[in-house]
Design brief:
Two copies of one chain form a homodimer.
Chain A (H helix, E strand, L loop, with lengths): L15 H25 L2 H7 L4 H7 L3 H21 L7 H18 L1 H12 L6 H24 L8 H17 L1 H7 L5 H16 L2
Helix pairs in contact in A: 1-2, 1-4, 1-6, 4-7, 5-8, 5-10, 6-8
Chain A binds a DNA duplex (30 and 30 nucleotides) through helix 1 and helix 3.
Chain lengths: 208, 208
DNA sequence: GCTGATCCTGACCGGGTGGTCAAATCAAGT
DNA sequence: ACTTGATTTGACCACCCGGTCAGGATCAGC
């Protein structure tokens, strides 16, 4: 049984060795879960990719669900950050463009995380509907209010704020989730092209 | 063993009874594959949902791969149609908007097919990379050429044609693939909103 | 070099997986 | 009613799945 972590001070917070092994497992699990989804992934493949036996993996994580939950938890923290980064006091068009760029950068730098998230949503969001309702939705509502304000002040074009946000998600995550298709259909594509296009697109749409 | 279909004339082309059963299986398989992906789906669940035993399912289809391949094959036929529907002789902005509307309608009417496709791409397109290279890519190249022509003639704004096409795919398919997220974050959302938004977006972007 | 805690593994378990097979059922023509 | 071929299924197989367990390495502190 894994040691309970409710002990006063077990080493340097949780021995560096242990943390390193956990990271290796999560790294391998991300590879597998992102490609095959929760049901399609197997502990054997994750353990093999992490270079250890399955029982050893289960020494660090209680179960398959546990690994998956930890992965999603870590991910969702990062997911909300860009939305929070929009500055209500900033220049509206530039603030939205900055959000688009940050989101695109995340898709470029964390494509596996994006695919993991996408797979979870496609499967009906069985394990993260709570997060979506409690964490994401309020933040979206808030941002929608902010955008409505900007529109009312005539500082950006009148657009449906909800659709605007969805469009940003779709356009940025697409480059991570559908990378395999993009690579085949337009092999020379570089992230820079996408950045320039999105800049152009949203500037045209939003500039009053 | 299933009868070989290389016989001269086996009944009315392939007895209506048989075709009906195959449809029921494919219907059930689409439900399951779209949610769980190829690896995550099981023949037991598909057979159960189709209201028959697993051996009976395997009487109609040779294997799990067979069912999946048939589903993808049927789907990919439909997938290319809208792209082919763009009329080189038409009014550029309207032609592109017509394409966007057709693609959005497909996401609305065939969300499971869209999710099946998305899951396949997320998994690295192991079973359809051939189709993407041989079927989709030439068509995209052709369309890119057409759009470049329109741009050269000054009939639409200068945009990256490849990025334009990707953006249409991303924005339309998003409504099917991420329906679970949309339903939680913005429950009242209706497809009509998306249609109006996309119309506005691409009209602004493309009108010279 | 002894000791205790941590780390790691082979062997195993019950249940699920894709797929097979022989036998039972059904539909339809005669 | 009888025959023939298409359809359906229970029983089964070898293998894989998530997870357990008893015991063997390994390492730190003494």
């Amino acid at each position: 049984m894994p040691p309970a972590d409710d002990q006063p001070a077990a080493g340097p917070v949780r021995s560096a060795r242990r943390q390193q092994t956990e990271s290796a497992i999560l790294e391998a699990a991300l590879d597998v879960f992102a490609v095959d989804g929760f049901r399609g992934a197997t502990l054997d493949r994750i353990a093999e990719r992490a270079g250890m036996s399955k029982p050893n993996l289960l020494y660090y994580f209680a179960s398959k669900d546990d690994v998956h939950a930890r992965l999603l938890g870590d991910l969702l923290d990062h997911w909300l950050a860009p939305l929070r980064g929009i500055d209500p006091a900033g220049e509206p068009v530039e603030e939205i463009l900055r959000y688009v760029r940050r989101k695109l950068a995340m898709s470029r730098d964390y494509p596996r995380e994006s695919r993991l998230f996408a797979g979870e949503i496609i499967a009906g969001a069985p394990r993260i509907s709570g997060f979506l309702a409690d964490g994401l939705r309020p933040l979206v509502d808030e941002t929608v209010g902010l955008i409505r304000g900007w529109i009312a002040q005539g500082r950006i074009s009148p657009v449906d704020p909800v659709q605007l946000i969805f469009s940003i998600w779709a356009l940025t995550q697409h480059h991570a989730d559908f990378a395999a298709q993009i690579e085949i259909v337009a092999p020379g594509d570089r992230a820079g092209d996408a950045g320039a296009f999105l800049d152009q697109l949203y500037r045209r749409l939003l500039t009053p």
